[in-house]
Amino acid sequence: MNWDINERWDLALGGRYEQWDSKNGYFSRKNPTTSLFELVDVADADRNQFSPKFSLGYTPTDDWLVRYSLAKAYRFPVIEEIFTQTQSYSSVVTARPDLKPENGLHHNLMLEKQFKTGYARINVFTETIKDAIESQSNILPGGASVTTFSAVDEVQTDG
């Protein structure tokens, strides 16, 4: 929803609702006593999240715009991150069925100058993401690779 507060100010509010389900999942694990792989069931999961967004813009003159935006956002793990377990001659992929959704808070300050042939824009932002999902690949001696997924407590990015 957008509102023009007056000719210089505008306000936008929005949001996204997400529903995430995981049912009948499993992964394989090597049994240390037999060296065979066995299937391990993963409990069903059902999560819902609402991600709100707020944006306030100010136009001090006809060719300048300043806008601040704030958003809360979630990213649920994808199938590869929670279920894919593969092993081949030269690579291993190990999933993490216990991964939580990423939980991010995003701030952005934009300054824009309009020209007759286009515009110039500068964005300054900071993002804090809790339970960030990272993929890590390592090359082992001999050339084989191992890929794992991990949850990082918190990642902050400024730019």
Secondary-structure blueprint of this entry?
Elements: E1 2-4, E2 9-22, E3 25-30, E4 37-42, E5 45-58, E6 64-75, H1 79-83, E7 86-87, E8 91-94, E9 102-115, E10 118-139, E11 145-158
Parallel strand pairs: 8-11
Antiparallel strand pairs: 1-2, 2-5, 3-4, 5-6, 6-9, 7-8, 9-10, 10-11
DSSP strand tally: 11
- What sequence of helices (H) and strands (E) makes up the elements? EEEEEEHEEEEE
Uncertain regions: pLDDT < 50 for 5+ in a row? none
The gross shape turns out to be elongated
Adjacency order of strands in the biggest sheet: 1-2-5-6-9-10-11-8-7
Query: Major beta sheet, specifics?
Result: 9 strands, mixed
Class of secondary structure makeup = mainly beta
> Into which percent range does the helicity of residues fall?
under 10%
**Approximately what portion of the residues adopt beta-strand conformation?**
over 45%
Mean pLDDT metric: 89
Rg estimate, integer Å: 23 Å
Distance between the termini: 28 Å
What kind of oligomer do you see? single chain
Counted by DSSP, the helix tally is 1
Structure in words:
This protein is mainly β and 159 residues long. Helix content is 3%, strand content 70%. The protein is built from one helix and eleven strands. It has one helix spanning 79-83, and strands at 2-4, 9-22, 25-30, 37-42, 45-58, 64-75, 86-87, 91-94, 102-115, 118-139, 145-158. A hairpin with a 5-residue loop joins strand 5 (45-58) and strand 6. The mean pLDDT is 89.
